[in-house]
Amino acid sequence: MSAGGLNRRAFLGRGLALGCSAAASPLLSTVTFASAPWDARLVVIILRGGMDGLGVLQPWGDPAFAALRPGMEALRPGSPEGAHDLDGFFALHPAMTPLLPLWRSGELGFVQAVSTPYRDKRSHFDGQDMLEAGTAEMLPRFRDGWLNRMLQQVPGLEGETAYTVGVPEMLLTRGPAHVMHWSPDAALDLTPQAQRLLEMVMHDDPLFRDSLADAVSLAQAKTDSKAQQKGAKPSAGHQQLAAYAADKLRGDSRVAAFSLGGWDTHNRQDQTLAPALTRLSDVLLTLRADLGPVWERTAVLAMTEFGRTARLNGTEGTDHGTAGTMLFAGGALRGGQGHGRWPGLAEADLYQRRDLMPLSDVRLHAAAVMQGLFGLNRDVLEGAVFPGIDMSGPSRLVL
C-alpha cells in the first residue's frame, strides 16, 4: 500500500498503544560514546525537524526581517518579553535566556547561513541522511556516517570504542568502527521502516506530529540511577540524556552524539519553537554543569538538516528551507560571537527568493573543530571523513 493510500487517522487510532510506548522510548534519538587517545571531548547534537535559525538568532539589524516576520514583533529587542540583543544586529530568542551567561563568558556561539550540499527537495529524511552521512551528494545507499569515519582514522581505540543508546542506530555513527548498543527500559519493538512510516503519517498533521515530537524529546534517556540513589529530583528525559552523556564523558569516553526532535515548526511557530529551545538550553546547561572542569576541553556542535523559509506562512509557521544556523558551545570553542558572513534578507538576496542563502558548508565547520580539537590531518578530513570538502579557508571556532 502506498503512503498516500494510508489513512492517517485510522492508522493512529489503531496505533494508540504504540504512541504510549513511544513516550517511554528514545525512538528517533540515539546516543553514541567513543573512547579515544586525546583529552578533548566532542558532542554532536542532531536537531531533527529543521531548526529555524532566523527564529533562534534573530537578525533584527537587517531591515527586511521585520517585514518577513510580522508575527514576531513582540520579540523585538527592548520589548517586555523580547529577544536579547547580542551585538546590535542579532538577538537571542527569549526561550534561551538561561544561556546568556554562556554567551557572555565566550562559551556559546553561532554560525549563520550554513547548510549541507542538499538542495531544493527539502525532505527531512534525505536532508538528515545527507547531514549524517557527510557527503556532497545523495548516494544510492549510505554505508556509514562521518563520525564513524572519523573514528576509523584514529589508531589505538580500545575497549568499548563506541555504543549507541536508543533505537535505532544513527547514520552519523554507522560504519566499520565498532559500536555497541544500550537501550533504556522500554517495551517497544519498532523497525527503522516502521519508524519512517510513522514519521511520514504524522508529518502533515500538526496535532499528532507535534505530540510525537514532544513525547520523543521528553523520553530520550534512562533515569540516572545514581541520581535516584542520592535522592535527586527526577529530571525530564532530555536532561537525563545529557546527564548520562556527561557521566560517560567524565570517564574514558571522548565523543558523544545524540539527537533532539521537535523542530518542525510549520504551524504557530510562536508556540512550537520555544519548547524545543528550552529543551536544547536544558541540555547544554546540564552538560556544562555535569562535566565540571572537563567542560573547558569540550566542544558541542548542534546541527540541523536545513533551515526554514524567511517568510512566515499562512499558519504563522515556517516551511522547509535551505540555509540555517549551527549552534556551538563549550570551553574549547570561541564563543561570544557569531561566525560566518551574512547574506541579507532582501528578496534578491534569498535563495530561490524564499530561503536564507547558504554561504558556508556546515561540514567545513565540523571538520575544522575536529582538526583543532584532535589534531586530525587535513588530508584525512577532506578525503575520508568529509569527501570533497576544501579546508583551505581559515576557521576561528577552536581556541
TrEMBL record:
This is DUF1501 domain-containing protein. It comes from the Bacteria. InterPro entries: DUF1501, TAT_signal. The lineage of its organism: Bacteria, Pseudomonadati, Pseudomonadota, Alphaproteobacteria, Rhodobacterales. It comes from Salipiger mangrovisoli. Transmembrane segments: none annotated.
